[in-house]
Every structure is written in structure tokens, then in C-alpha cells.
Amino acid sequence: MSELSRVVVVLNPNSTGDGPSNARGLRDELDGVVDVELVETQHAGHAEDLARDAVRQDPGTLVVSASGDGGYHEVVNGVFDAGRGMAAVLPSGNANDHATAVQERPLGEAIRAVVGGEPVTRMDLLEVSGAGRRRVAHSYAGVGITPVAAAALNEHDLDAVKEAQLVVRAFWRYRPLTITHDGNDISIDSLVFANIDRMAKYAQLAEGSAPDDGRYETLLIPHRSKLRLVLDFTRVLRGAHPVRSRSEPYEFTTHTPMPLQLDGEVFHVDAGSSVTVRCLPRALRTVL
Q1: Residue 276: CB atoms within 10 Å
Q2: N or C: which end of the chain has fewer CB within 10 A?
């Protein structure tokens, strides 16, 4: 008997991207295979509530986010918070890093296979807690210039020259951050925690990393100079910057307020906040 009893597709009706049309296409493709319901978000954060309510109503629900990585972030948190159900992404954004990294076949084909008896897949999640907040990330979390610059590139459809200009502006305005880790104060330009091997379409983090291995990768760029930062960022784009694979939690304390990016979504962390990042092995049930 299949673990999947129905599909709920969450979409933003005001999206200028492919989400609404992709959602309708998936519904038509699965007609006669499994019940599919389309639900529309009304405001920021609504996808998380819709996902949580859907799986609480029926634990066999697969909640599909017809969006990019940010929309999927909300759906994953709703499903995770409910402690049941499944989540998947129907890639409809600009970068679609998560889908590119993990999906080996079209989502409709994968859903058909699970309805036919194929088991669902379990994947790791990153848990980020601190400052009175607890979130999970399906792909990456980060502070500093790398997630900021990568997200800026992700938001624009530019040619190579304009992309370079955008990066230069972001780097020129950037100021280093200071954290305390293992009792040491560290001035950093970037700190990224990754569950997949890429970030925001351009940045290559760790070739060969797997989102179900019970580990995550950390990329740390200490502060040196503007020129060195640009060189380090180009190494990240080429996948040449060293990373460290770890299974143990990473704890740090912020010295100044700083933006924290989770799957492209931005959350602000106050100065003096203690933040812990850990891997939650096989915490998400999904369809690939």
C-alpha cells in the first residue's frame, strides 16, 4: 500500500514565474493517479501554515511547493513542525538549487512511482536555533557576503558584465562580521552551512556531498581584505574553496546584528545571540 494518499500543491497566485502554470500542469498529469488539490498563498509565510494544516489533516499528504527554494523552505518547515507528511518541490523559481541537486526525474514521474508502491525518500535537514527561533533548512544556511551576493545574483537575470558589476557593488559595501566560536573571536566575511553541493545557482560548495549522509559542509572565509574576499568568492563560484564536512553541531555567538539566510530567505539575528547549527539525519520524507 502506498504511503502517499493525496497531493496538495501550494502556489503563489500572484507569482510572475512558472509556479501557477506548473501547478496546474502537475494536477492534469496526475489526473486519475492520485487526488491533487491546489491551494493558494495569501501572504508571506502562508505556505508554512498551509503545509502544516494539510499534513495534520491527513498524514499521507505530500505537500508540493510550486516555487523556488524560498517557497519550498516554508513548506518544509510546515511539514517538519507537524511531525508528519511529506514535502517536495516543483521547481518554478530562478535558481532551483535544491531540485537541481537532488531530483533525478520529473516530479510527476516520481509521484506516480510512489503511488505505485515505491518507498518515499528520507533526506537530512539543517536545524538552526537561537535567539528564540528554531528553523530547518533543506539546502543551506549562511551569514556574511557569500549568501548575500549569491542571493543578489539569483534575483536578477543579467549578462556576465552586469553580474560582475552587481557583485563588485555588493562587495564594496560589505563590512565584516565578528562571531565567537570555540571561545575564539573570529572576524569573518562569510560562513555557510550546506546540505547540498551548491547555493543560489552560481556558488559550488562541495562536490560529492550527499543530502542523506548525516553530515553537512561548512565554508568559512575569514576577513582579510576586499581583494582577497573577491578572490575567495571566485574560488567559491568555481567550487575550489576548501570546505569541512562535519556531523557535530556548530555553535557561535554574534557580536553585531546580522542577516541569516536560510534557503534564500532572510532572518535577522540580534547581537549577542547564540546560534547552533546541526544536522538532522533523514528528518524529511520526500519524493524524488
Answers
A1: 13
A2: N
**Is 6-119 a CATH 3.40.50.10330 domain?**
yes
pLDDT in tens, 40-51: 999 999 999 999
Torsion 209-211-216-222 (CA) sign? positive
Could you tell me what percentage of the chain is helix, strand and coil, using 3-state DSSP and rounding each to the nearest 5?
30, 35, 35
What ranges do the domains of the chain cover? 6-119, 129-282
167 pLDDT more than 80: no
- Mention the CATH class of domain 129-282: mainly beta
Tens digits of residue pLDDT in 198-230: 665 556 666 667 899 999 999 898 998 877 777
- The residue length of the chain stands at 288
Distance CA 265, CA 139 (A): 11
